[in-house]
Amino acid sequence: MRRIQVVATGGTIASRSGAEGRRATVLAKELVASVGPLPEGATVGARDVVTRGSYAFGTADLLALAREVRAALRDGADAVVMTHGTDTMEETAFLLDLLFDDPRPIVLTGAQRPFDDRAADGPANLGDALAVAGDDAARGLGTLLVFDGFAFAARGVRKSDTMSARAFSAPGRGPVLRVADGHVVPLARPVPGPRVPVDLDLPRLPRVDVVPVYPGADGLFVRASLEAGAAGVVV
C-alpha cells in the first residue's frame, strides 16, 4: 500500500466565494474528498499548513512548507502532494527541487478557478497529482508541477496564462508526464540539477536581490540593495 501525504496551503484551489469575496477556506480533507476515487493501492493523508493566497508567502513560509515535506518523508510517506496558489507555485516547486535529493515524488498542484465554481478545475488537477505521485514513472524526476493533465519538471516550468485552465508550460522543454483517464504516460526524463544544502530550521532565508544591468549602468542599484540589507546580489 502506497502512502501519499497531501499538504494543503490555500490558494484558489481552496477558495470559496463569500460576502468578503473569495477566500481560501477549504481544508485538506475536503479537497481530497472532492477528487472522487483515489489511486488504486494508495492511502492518502491530509494536512493543513496555511490557508491563504500564495502571493502573500514570504521566505519564512517557504521554509515552513519545506519542513512539512521533510516531516512527511521522514515519517515514511511514499510521496507528497502540495496544493498551492498558482501565483508563486513555480517558485515553491523550484525551491523544493533545490532542497530535496530524494527519489520519492514531490508534486505541486492548484487551480485557476475556485472550489465552488461550476467549472472548478481543482478536483481534476488534484486527482491527476495524486495519480502522478502514486506512479513509479514519477520516481527520481525531482519535484513536479501537475496542471491540466500534464506534469512539468520544477526547473523550467512557468505560469504562462492567467486565464486558461492550461496555466503552466515549460518553454523549450515541455512536460515530462501526461495523465490520461488516471493513467500516467511518460513523455521525457529531465536532467537532474544540482541540490543546494539549506538549513530548513532557519527563521527565514537570507535576502538576495536580483539587479539588472545595461550598458552605462553604474553601481547604484547594487549599493542600494546592500544598504537595504541584502546578503548578496545576483547581477
From TrEMBL:
Domain L-asparaginase N-terminal: 3-185
Catalytic residues identified in the record: 12, 86
Source organism, top-level taxon: Bacteria
Catalytic reaction(s) noted: L-asparagine + H2O = L-aspartate + NH4(+)
Family (UniProt): Belongs to the asparaginase 1 family.
The protein's name in its UniProt record: asparaginase
Annotated EC: 3.5.1.1
SMART domains the UniProt entry points to: Asparaginase
Gene Ontology terms for molecular function: asparaginase activity
InterPro entries attached to this UniProt entry: AsnASE_II, Asp/glu_Ase-like_sf, Asparaginase/glutaminase-like, Asparaginase/glutaminase_AS1, Asparaginase/glutaminase_AS2, L-asparaginase_N, L-asparaginase_N_sf
An annotated GO BP: asparagine metabolic process
Binding residue positions for substrate: 54, 86-87
Species of the source: Streptomyces halstedii
Signal peptide (from-to): none
Enzyme class, broadest EC rank: hydrolase
